[in-house]
């Protein structure tokens, strides 16, 4: 390969002093390439004004190079690198010019002139970066723009055709020119406009007043190019979608689609009313249940028998567990309840109602946040109430403190719930006849008949664990969500 001195002196015809200038600059070429993350070159002019000679080159070590091989000694031509030729001839720098490399890759050039003896341009310092990906994206955008223009033309031709397809459409179609004059209305659009007080709507008229100046075509013809609005006229509600139509790069008009959403809005209104009514019903049910519990508390205070008082207390807890669900439904306004909060409130209510104040009982809830359908939640609330109540009443007799753990899991095909305590356990005969107590009979009925599940009770001297499992098909996927 020829040296810089040979290339500059023999082929570019530079004198000794100018050649030394080029050599001095070439020594720092690698540093420039690394800092700019670009391929850097020095080109020198030749006798032919349309060509230049590459005398030095540096590949960046900090980025991908444009070139697989060295191009030193090759010629650069004006049709591939116009910025280089302009810089060499005019002595002016060029920034951001595009060209084609010797290896036929699209690139962007920054070119600075190199001056020698008598301020004469003796070369050009060139930075080149690969923009082939950028060029590809620009071509894709251009193709998309062409497709959009073709689609606009197609819509225009379809709308102006004499076929009967437009009469079958549910949306009204209105075409405007750039002066806001109506050029086409389909039969559906005429009927919809007549319904809001414009029976004389037709081609050739100005449509700007149809919607009482609530829509501006100038906004469509401006930078946004699209408008979507909902307009109400008494009981009629229309959704308007408008967009500009292009021919080439020029806006030639606009297309508006009118959709009657009155029935949809009326159904939304009815749903809001029904939701409010349902919330009020749940609120009143909760209030009535709280009234019942207040009456039961009055009765409980009048009895002198501990056993009767315990029956009252158990009944109050059961009613309150149902009231908790209705209270949440009243505030949330949906037919689903956060089960974790239900379990926490029920456990807290039951523990606070215990009669033996000498025992400190702690509760622990484990499980992901879940929204469960209200019917399923009511059954689970009663189950949790009975299980926690049994722990409070029977598990910790003679103990200074205790813990009740509530764990639930939802996944796959099953929902499982465990309530465990670290108390003294159950007697063997009680465990063998676990349906004997009213609370346990109630749990078994709820699990087996309401939830189609299984109830298992295990006990030892380290505590008692109750487990229920039921199919997750009772929890529709649209009624369950992780929070």
UniProtKB/TrEMBL annotation:
One Pfam assignment: HATPase_c
EC number: 2.7.13.3
Alphabetical list of SUPFAM superfamilies matching this protein: ATPase domain of HSP90 chaperone/DNA topoisomerase II/histidine kinase
Domain Histidine kinase: 280-474
Signal peptide limits: none
InterPro entries: H_kinase_PdtaS_GAF_sf, HATPase_C_sf, HATPase_dom, His_kinase_dom, PdtaS_GAF, Sig_transdc_His_kin_sub2_dim/P, Sig_transdc_His_kinase_HWE
One Gene Ontology molecular-function label: protein histidine kinase activity
Catalysed reactions listed for this entry: ATP + protein L-histidine = ADP + protein N-phospho-L-histidine
Keyword Nucleotide-binding: yes
Source superkingdom: Bacteria
PANTHER family linked: ETHYLENE RESPONSE SENSOR PROTEIN (PTHR41523:SF8), TWO-COMPONENT SYSTEM SENSOR PROTEIN (PTHR41523)
Protein name: histidine kinase
Species for this entry: Cohnella yongneupensis
Taxonomic path: Bacteria, Bacillati, Bacillota, Bacilli, Bacillales
């Amino acid at each position: 390969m020829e040296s810089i001195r040979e290339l500059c002196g023999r082929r570019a015809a530079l004198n000794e002093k100018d050649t030394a200038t080029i050599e001095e600059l070439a020594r720092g070429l690698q540093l420039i390439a690394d800092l700019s993350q670009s391929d850097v070159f020095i080109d020198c002019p030749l006798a032919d004004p349309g060509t230049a000679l590459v005398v030095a080159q540096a590949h960046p070590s900090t980025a991908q190079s444009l070139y697989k091989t060295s191009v030193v000694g090759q010629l650069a031509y004006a049709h591939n690198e116009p910025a280089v030729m302009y810089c060499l001839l005019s002595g002016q720098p060029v920034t951001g010019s595009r060209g084609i490399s010797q290896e036929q890759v699209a690139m962007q050039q920054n070119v600075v002139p190199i001056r020698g003896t008598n301020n004469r341009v003796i070369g050009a310092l060139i930075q080149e970066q690969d923009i082939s990906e950028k060029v590809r994206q620009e071509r894709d955008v251009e193709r998309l723009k062409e497709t959009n223009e073709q689609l606009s033309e197609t819509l225009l031709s379809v709308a102006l055709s004499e076929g009967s397809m437009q009469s079958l459409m549910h949306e009204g179609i209105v075409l405007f020119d750039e002066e806001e004059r109506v050029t086409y209305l389909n039969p559906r659009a005429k009927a919809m406009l007549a319904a809001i007080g414009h029976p004389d709507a037709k081609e050739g008229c100005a449509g700007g007043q149809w919607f009482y100046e609530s829509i501006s075509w100038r906004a469509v013809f401006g930078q946004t190019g699209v408008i979507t609005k909902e307009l109400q006229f008494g009981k009629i509600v229309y959704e308007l979608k408008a967009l500009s139509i292009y021919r080439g790069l020029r806006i030639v008009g606009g297309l508006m689609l009118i959709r009657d959403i009155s029935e949809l809005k009326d159904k939304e209104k009815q749903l809001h009313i029904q939701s409010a009514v349902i919330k009020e019903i749940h609120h009143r049910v909760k209030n009535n249940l709280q009234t019942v519990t207040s009456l039961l508390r009055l009765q409980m205070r009048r009895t002198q028998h501990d056993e009767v008082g315990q029956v009252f207390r158990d009944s109050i807890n059961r009613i309150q567990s149902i009231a908790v669900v209705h209270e949440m439904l009243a505030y949330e306004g949906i037919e689903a309840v956060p089960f974790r909060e239900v379990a926490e409130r029920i456990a807290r209510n039951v523990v606070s109602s215990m009669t033996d104040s000498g025992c400190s009982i702690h509760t622990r809830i484990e499980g992901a946040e879940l929204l469960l359908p209200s019917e399923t939640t009511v059954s689970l609330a009663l189950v949790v109430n009975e299980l926690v109540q049994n722990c409070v009443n029977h598990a910790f007799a003679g103990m200074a403190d205790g813990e009740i753990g509530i764990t639930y899991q939802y996944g796959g095909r099953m929902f499982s719930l465990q309530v465990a305590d670290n108390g003294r356990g159950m007697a063997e005969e009680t465990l063998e006849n676990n349906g004997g107590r009213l609370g346990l009979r109630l749990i078994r009925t709820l699990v087996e008949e309401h939830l189609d599940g299984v109830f298992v009770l295990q006990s030892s001297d380290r505590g008692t664990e109750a487990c229920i499992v039921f199919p997750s098909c009772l929890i529709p996927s649209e009624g369950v969500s992780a929070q």
